Amino acid sequence: MNNDSSARIVADLDAWIASAAPGAKLPSTRTLVTRYGASPVTVQKALRTLAARGAVESRPGVGTFVRAVRVARPNDYGWQTAALGAPPHRGPQLSTALRTFPNDVIALHAGYPDRELLPERLVRAAFTRAARGDAAVNRPPAAGLPELQAWFATELGTVTPAGTAPPAPSDVVVLPGSQSGLTTTFRAVVGAGRPLLVESPTYWGAILAAARTGVRVVPVPSGPDGPDPDELARAFRQTGARAFYAQPNFANPTGARWSPELADRVLDTVRGHGAYLIEDDWAHDFGIDAEPVPLATRDDSGHVIHLRSLTKSVSPAVRIAAITARGPARERILADAQAESMYVSGLLQTVALDVVTQPAWRTHLRGLRHQLAARRDLLVGALQEHVPDARVEAVPPGGLNLWVRLPDATDLGRLVADCEAAGVVVAAGTEWFPAEPTGAYLRLNYSGPNPGAFPDGARLLGRALARQR
Ligand SMILES: Cc1ncc(COP(=O)(O)O)c(C=O)c1O
């Protein structure tokens, strides 16, 4: 990248911005590339410099704009520090997975699949139909629309083996996304100050939900095959914990899928300690080489609390998830969810149900499996070619992420910043560890936009890593 030409573009755009109206749209990156005879990476660097100074703001998918608000004098919010006091915990405000970037960066950090992987036509048609119906004006029952509860229960019921009672629709509580399901379950079933066993590494949002609800997380080492069952048993014995949060299928971040033997051992341990397994089945629709079978299908005694979300597979705009729980736990969860948000928009529930009950939904999922396989293999191949020091511990049989080990001496903070400056966004694995990281990891997501740019992204990552040798 040429620093001089980036500085020249900044200086020139600064002059333009000074005379532009607040809110004015800057020319597109393509126009700027032509105007300045510079590469897209150099133009992006200049735009990032202007954004960092607060001169412009970028709205992904729309463009870059002169900042509308120009504050003449800085506000004094010091009084709020006294009013709020110190926060109960200090963590990152926004996970890397939720950050948005201009369209032309190579995004390997995202948490939600790109639009081209969504059933967009089905979603739009479902919204149109739902807007015409009663759902647009009615208040749904607190636990969810009965038809949607029934759909979630049937999804589990059809793969429940003979001899185990399938869940009933009334065991299902519909929620606005599984993130809120985690917060609700941790608060209602574990409780502030009490221990919750979690895999390490585990989903950053679960760590956050535990911190927010005052639940004390106890890490259990986990890897590409799932958690260590002996360590799990030891952690239950030592802490007296009554719950274990885990992702038995395509875990975020490791991609792990538990073997049937491990699933049996974990269930036995959980039952033996009179505890709950909080099963986060977030990637249910993202099987690639394997069909995910939830552990919840092997239990009818209320030990497994099952969370399934549609926000990643239907649309991030349709924030619908469900918890299936039996016995008093279900009542506690429903009571907490009601206190939190009363009920979930009936319109969104109707849209979600419409999409997943169309015959085309199954066709979509079959196509998605091929697209994810191609993207995953493309990224694995690109890393092998361009980042020889990186090790993909296991090619995941499903899910959206690669968990990549880097040399121990890697300065991850610097690597992530260098990659971002070069136009590729990656997430440091640190965010997925509930305690100190046990190695230098990156989590790379292969469901983001423009997979054609994965090889370039890997090349830029390889270069940034090589500079640390
Ligand atoms: C493992 C896991 N659980 C839960 C969630 C939350 O998903 P949502 O709230 O969109 O349903 C995510 C999102 O990234 C996730 O990765």
UniProtKB/TrEMBL annotation:
InterPro entries associated with the record = Aminotransferase_I/II_large (IPR004839), HTH_trans_reg/aminotransferase (IPR051446), PyrdxlP-dep_Trfase (IPR015424), PyrdxlP-dep_Trfase_major (IPR015421), PyrdxlP-dep_Trfase_small (IPR015422), Tscrpt_reg_HTH_GntR (IPR000524), WH-like_DNA-bd_sf (IPR036388), WH_DNA-bd_sf (IPR036390)
Q: Which Gene3D superfamilies does this entry report, sorted A to Z?
A: Aspartate Aminotransferase, domain 1, Type I PLP-dependent aspartate aminotransferase-like (Major domain), Winged helix-like DNA-binding domain superfamily/Winged helix DNA-binding domain
Could you tell me which Pfam families the record lists for this protein?
A: Aminotran_1_2 (PF00155), GntR (PF00392)
Keywords per UniProt: Aminotransferase, DNA-binding, Pyridoxal phosphate, Transcription, Transcription regulation, Transferase
Listed SMART domains: HTH_GNTR (SM00345)
The HTH gntR-type domain covers 3-69
One example of the protein's molecular function in GO is:
pyridoxal phosphate binding
For this chain, the family text in UniProt reads: In the C-terminal section; belongs to the class-I pyridoxal-phosphate-dependent aminotransferase family.
Q: Which PANTHER family match?
A: HTH-TYPE TRANSCRIPTIONAL REGULATORY PROTEIN GABR
Q: What is this protein called?
A: PLP-dependent aminotransferase family protein
